[in-house]
Structure formats: structure tokens, C-alpha cells
Specification:
Length: 264
């Protein structure tokens, strides 16, 4: 979606979400969504598996803009990858909260797909330390996945996990499909924006505000992580959520009319 402008709000002051109670994560997600709506976002992607599992579809039902999570697109992609005559099973890897919420497992099993799941909390710090394709990462992956049964696909149920693809492919073998929810949700959002008539008009050149970062913690630390993970270099500012919100002075998306709600 090269013609769109993006505001990314990272709650870096309160991470990790994966080890927190779902009720707490649900409240965090609500605060973040309200901040983005106040800044003029025309649509919201809850780009966190734990927050998606905790807050949808209830949050999407009360927001005035279309809202997507990352769970359902990942489920749909996994179902497409399953071959019943071969193995007929999907593994779900995620944080403790995501696995406990059974957001993926219940939807897959309702579609007739057998599941196996495992919380992999050490994967996040491995990625953030920049050692996702290393002997340490492979050792941890083998520890988590050593007893995994034969599967057709593995859902990488945390936004950090796709950076472990090379390591996971070595551990699991090339025949296992790795489902990256970020790719699946991008396809869904692009199609839905077009269907709803919410796509931005084509632009001749990229703008300075194509991406804006908002973070609740230290900006410098966040940008170091962005650089380490290969993210876009873009303006970043610190923002307070809840009752002590920052002034709405940063570049914002133009508000658009209310439209139907979409939830994963």
C-alpha cells in the first residue's frame, strides 16, 4: 500500500504483553486504539497477536473505524496450507498469553484442523538481541519444538517470530510451511480498504510523513531496535496514553467517515 501513510504506536513502556493477564492487555489495547482514533487514523490494525487475542472482536465493535487483528488472517492462511491426506495438523507458536487465549487453536479446530501449540517466550529476546539466526536461537528452537508432532504448517503467532524463519526452517525442515501473519494481514487490509472505498489516492512521490512512530517508552532505545530489525527510518516521538495524553500536534491522517467494523 505505497500510497498510504502509517502511524505506528508501540507500547514499549509496558512490554512484554505476552506474560501479562489478558484483562490488562485488553485495557492497553483500548488506550492505544483511542489514541490512534484521536490522531485521525482511518483504520487500525492491532499488530500484536496477544492484543488481538485479548481485545477482539469487542474492541472493533465499538471503534468508529475499520479494525483488524492478526489472528484470523493467519488462521485462514494456515487452513489453506493443510493437506488432510498428508498430516492435517497445524502448530501454533506464540506468547504465553496468546497460547492460553486459544485464539488460533479454537478457530482452527472449529474448521476441522487438528492443532498443537507451544508458548515460546525466549524467542522475543533472541530476536531483539539480533541473534535470531544463530546457534543459540537454534538450540532454543529445538528445546521448544523437540516433541512437536508432524505438522503441515506452523503459525508464527508473535510479530517477532518471522525473523526466526531461517532457524525454524532448519529445525522443522523445508516441507513445513511457516505462516507469517504479517503478510496475511497486509493482504486482507489492502483488499478491505479497496472494498470499503478507503484507499488513499495515488501519490507521485513519497512523503516525509509516510511513517510516524509513537512510543510510550524511550525513543532512542526504540529506534535502536528498529534499526536492528531492519525497520524503516522515520520520525519518532514519545506519547503518554490514558488520562495523560500528549498534545495532538504530530502529523496525523485525515479523518474519514465512519464505516463498518472488521474484526479478526
Amino acid at each position: 500500500m505505497p500510497d498510504e501513510r502509517f502511524v505506528y504506536l508501540g507500547d514499549t513502556a509496558r512490554v512484554p504483553y505476552g506474560s501479562k493477564p489478558l484483562e490488562m492487555v485488553r485495557a492497553f489495547a483500548s488506550e492505544i486504539a483511542e489514541e490512534l482514533v484521536a490522531r485521525g487514523a482511518k483504520a487500525i490494525v492491532i499488530a500484536c497477536n496477544t492484543a488481538s487475542a485479548a481485545s477482539l472482536p469487542e474492541l472493533a465493535a465499538r471503534l468508529p473505524v475499520p479494525t483488524w487483528g492478526v489472528v484470523q488472517p493467519g488462521v485462514d492462511a494456515a487452513i489453506d496450507a493443510v493437506t488432510p491426506a498428508y498430516r492435517g495438523r497445524v502448530a501454533v507458536l506464540g506468547t504465553e498469553a496468546t497460547i492460553k487465549a486459544r485464539a488460533y487453536q479454537d478457530r482452527l479446530e472449529a474448521a476441522g484442523v487438528a492443532t498443537w501449540s507451544r508458548a515460546c517466550p525466549l524467542f522475543v529476546p533472541i530476536v531483539e538481541e539480533g541473534v535470531s539466526d544463530s546457534a543459540i536461537a537454534e538450540l532454543v528452537a529445538r528445546h521448544y519444538l523437540g516433541d512437536m508432532p508432524a505438522v503441515d504448517a506452523v503459525i508464527l503467532g508473535c510479530t517477532h517470530y518471522p525473523l526466526l524463519k531461517p532457524t525454524l526452517s532448519r529445525v522443522l525442515g523445508p516441507e513445513v510451511v511457516l505462516i507469517d501473519s504479517s503478510e496475511a494481514v497486509a493482504d486482507v487490509v489492502s483488499a478491505d480498504l479497496a472494498r470499503l472505498g478507503l484507499c488513499s489516492p495515488a501519490r507521485r512521490t513519497a512523503g516525509a510523513d509516510d511513517v510516524t512512530y509513537l512510543v510510550t517508552g524511550d525513543v532512542g532505545s526504540f529506534m535502536n531496535t528498529v534499526t536492528r530489525l531492519g525497520g524503516t527510518d522515520a520520525p519518532a516521538e514519545r506519547v503518554d496514553l490514558g488520562t495523560a495524553r500528549a498534545p495532538k500536534s504530530s502529523p496525523a491522517l485525515e479523518p474519514l467517515p465512519r464505516s463498518e467494523h472488521l474484526a479478526s
